[in-house]
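Example complex used in Figure S2.
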Amino acid sequence: MDIENFKSQFQADIKNSIPSHSVDCVVIGYAQEKLKILTLKFKNTEFWSLPGRFIEQEEDMNVAALRVLEFRTGLQNIFLEQFYTFGNTSRSDKKQMNAILKKVGISSEITINWFKQRFISTGYMALVDVNKCILQSDIFSESIEWKSIDDLPIFILDHKEIVSKAVRHLRNQMNYLPVGITLLPEIFTLKELQKLYEAILQKPLDRGNFQRKILKLGILIRLEKQLLGKAHKAPYLYKFDEKRYTELLENGIGFVS
Amino acid sequence: MDIENFKSQFQADIKNSIPSHSVDCVVIGYAQEKLKILTLKFKNTEFWSLPGRFIEQEEDMNVAALRVLEFRTGLQNIFLEQFYTFGNTSRSDKKQMNAILKKVGISSEITINWFKQRFISTGYMALVDVNKCILQSDIFSESIEWKSIDDLPIFILDHKEIVSKAVRHLRNQMNYLPVGITLLPEIFTLKELQKLYEAILQKPLDRGNFQRKILKLGILIRLEKQLLGKAHKAPYLYKFDEKRYTELLENGIGFVS
DNA sequence: ACAAAAGTGTTTATAATACACCCATGA
DNA sequence: TCATGGGTGTATTATAAACACTTTTGT
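Predicted assembly (514 residues):
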C-alpha cells in the first residue's frame, strides 16, 4: 500500500470510529533477562508511542485492542487484559500532536482535526513471546522496537504513565497472569523461569526455595537434561502442564519467596 | 426546577458532553451487617440503574464521577476508584432504552438520539457511610435507595454485571482500600468491624484471631467501654488512627483469617 | 449462679526463609 | 581436582488456625 492509499484508508477508518476514545496497548515481552515493551517511533521525530487504535462503531473495545496487537505482532490468540482507562483532559496536547503530524507529513484537515480531539484511552496489557513476533511498522512510524523497561525512550502524551501503570498491574496481578507460559519459550530451565520472576518482581529470589515451591505446584513437566557444554551440572529442561497451569491460575499461583 | 426546565438543561448538558462515553458509579455502603448498593428506579418502570453521568468536554473523567456522587449523596471528598471500563457493543440496547424513555416521558428527539448511541462506560467504585448520605433523586427516577447486595433489583443494560465486577474489585483489593474508615461510623466495636469484614469476604472469621491481628496493627485507638445494658461484658469502643491507617494501606492491610 | 459475649492465652499446623550439602560437568 | 552451578535437604522463624480459659455484666 502506498502513502496516498494509506492516507485515504485511514480517513475512512476514522470516519467509522467512535470519537474521543482509543485503546493503547502495552505489549510486554521478555528477553536478555529484562522485561521489554513494544514501542513505535514517529517518522522524523524522537518521539515514541505505544501501539494504539480507534474503536469502530460496531466493534467491541477488546476486539479493537486485539486487532492492533495482531497487526503489530503477527500473532493470534494473544493474552491481553484491560488495566486502566486514562480520562484526564490534560492528557491531550494539541501542540505536540500538531508538531508530530507535521513532521510525519500529514496535511489532511480531517486527520489533523481528528487528532486534535480530547481522547479518553483504555489501556490494555498484553503478554507475548518476543521470538514469535513479526513486527509491523506503518506509514506514521519509522520503526517498531522492543525497549527494556529500565531504558525507555521519550514517549508522546502520557504514554510513559500508561506503561508504568501497566507494569504495576503486571506486578500486582502476577499470581493471576499466565506470565510463564506467555513470556518464555515452550522449553526452559528453572533458572530461566526464576530470572523471569525476578525481572517482574524486581528482587532476587532464593534458588532452592523457588525450585521447591514451583515444582510442588505440579505445573511443570520435567524433560531431559540440557547439554550446555558448560563446566557444571546440566540443568533439567521443563515445559508447562498447560491444563494444570490454567486451572491453578484461577485461584492465583503465589510464589513470592 | 420544573420538568421543562430540567429537560432543556439536560439537552444543554449533553451538547457539551463527549459522545459515546459515560461513567457509572457503584456506590457501596454498609448497614444491618450487609453491603449496600445505591440504586435509582426509573419512573413508571420496574427497572433500576446505577447513578451515572456523561463527561463534559473539558472535564476529567474522575471529576465527572465525583460530581455525580456529590449530587446523589450530598457528600464531598468521597473515596472512589475506577475499576473497569465496559466497552462491548452488546451493552447498548436501543429497544430497552426507547421503552424506558417513553415511560419516563421523554419525547425530545435530541435526547432520544443521544441515548440511542453505543456507549462505553467506565465504572467507579465509591465507599460511603450510608448514615451521612442525603440521597437525591431526579426527573428520570421515582426513587433512590440502598439495596442489599444479595437482594438486588432488576437493572437496565449491563448494570448488574457492573455491580458484580465492582464487588469483586472490592474483595480483591480489600487490603488496599479504606473499607473500615469509609463504611463504618467514627466509633465502633471490634465486633462491628469484624462483621464488616465478614460481609465483604463472605465468610466467618475467628473472633480471637481477628481481634489480636487487627489490634497488633496499631491502627485502632481504644476508647471507653460501651454501656449496653446487655447481660455480658461491655465491649470497648474504638476509632481509627487515621494517620497510621492510611500509612499502612499503602502496602496493604492484610488480615484474612 | 448462670448465660452470654468480650478479652486474652495456648497449642498445633503450615509456610517462609536462610543456608548447607552433595552432585554433575568441563577445564 | 577444582570451580561452577544444579538439585535437594534441614533448621529456624514467622504466621495461620483452632480453640480454651477467664472476665464482665444483667438476670
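Chain B touches chain A at residues 18-21, 55, 57-62, 82, 84-85, 87-90, 118, 120, 122 (CB under 8 Å). Chain B has a mean pLDDT of 93.
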